[in-house]
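Quick one: co-fold with manganese (II) ion.
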Amino acid sequence: MKATAAYISENKERFLNELLDLLRIPSVSADPAYSNDVNRTADHIAEHLKFIGLDKVEVCQTAGYPVVYGEKILSDKLPTVLVYGHYDVQPADPIDLWHAPPFEPVVKKTEIHPEGAIFARGACDDKGQMFMHVKAVEALLKSNELPCNVKLMIEGEEEVGSENLAIFVTQNKERLKADIILVSDTGMIANDCPSITTGLRGLSYLEVEVTGPNRDLHSGLYGGCVANPINILAQMISSLHDENNHITIPGFYDKVEELSKEERAEMAKAPFSHDAYCKALDLTDVHGETGYSTPERGSIRPTLDVNGIWGGYTGEGAKTVIPSKAYAKISMRLVPNQVSDEITELFTKHFNSIAPKGVRVKVTPHHGGEAVVTPIDSIAYKAASKAYEQTFGKPAIPVRSGGSIPIVAMFEKELGLKTLLMGFGLDSDAIHSPNEHYGLFNYYRGIETIPYFYKYYTELMANQ
Ligand code: BES
Ligand code: MN
Ligand code: MN
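Sure, here it is.
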């Protein structure tokens, strides 16, 4: 991998500038106002895949945003790595809280990133991390050191649920044939503490609507006599957790996989500082389910959170009103064995059952997805482990993440393939938040580490 390493080091500046160009296109998948830009991003990436020398590059149209595909097949005797990433990003708002415009990337030093970090929407999630793969493959190709076959599949709807990618995958099973899926869309513990993600939570996302009277009412004339949907919604939501912060939906925990003492002890070995955690978030204390540590609460335990709540009058000054309707968006993070659709159904049944007389309740499901755990005794994990050892000088720790990438469970179901999650972001990189950033250290170290994964994976596959 000498030539590859040299190529990377000689082209660092260009690699950075190319990522900055990609970050300048506002590929917000959730907001139709950006649809031209999202499509433009797909074209831009396809052109780039051609530029680095991939074959069969295609902007594959779907019912939504396209999937960009490219490959380099050396021999059918060699293993094939299928890389997945996404080029769409989250909306940038609240815009006012950004120190610089979200689609005009700037490099700035921070305490955690003394070498500098790229500030822009998508810098870490996932353009920066996805682009590391493009650059790693470029370096391998240009140095004639690509050891195996590679396929790249980059989608534009991850942040809105990957529904069309799911269809694309079922319709392109032959094209997507591979031995392993490789994804960089998660994080690691710290720049001096590499980790490999071994799990993702599932998701059930829904919206609730509580309706009281058929119109907004004068709160003096009617106050005290009719159900106020906001009061009721607040009561209903607060009843969804008990005093131990357990979720009260009947059956919610039925399928939850409990970890053994040994597994929990193993987890507890990963470094975690309560004080640093609170300090970073300006909190006086953490909060969560009794009987579990913060890292456990955030990975191996399911959750229920309100993501947004609204209704009534929220404008300037005061308006005395009993609103007709109240709304909330609610997400539940799920763990292995829980089934997203089943949980959505349990929620719906329960939420309807706790509604008092005098209101009507409507529950509308949004997207969902299943949790995954990935093995740590696989060839892919071992190869990744050796790759991190090579570039970080120390072994990576396995860590289950609390985030969700619903398509990963789909890959396993539809393609029968396991995924290796090589994430290089940090929790402090502010993904989905204002001032999202990605460390230059992380970007370059990722580009350096990925080629070793290809090398060791190919070697271990040949020797199995
Ligand atoms: N890349 C994230 C997921 C992630 C981030 C996993 C960090 C682990 C560590 C992904 O883009 C994302 O934001 N997923 C959504 C779900 C999706 C259906 C909108 C999420 O986790 O909320
Ligand atoms: Mn992502
Ligand atoms: Mn995301």
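If it helps, Residues 2-200+371-463 form a domain with the Aminopeptidase fold (CATH 3.40.630.10).
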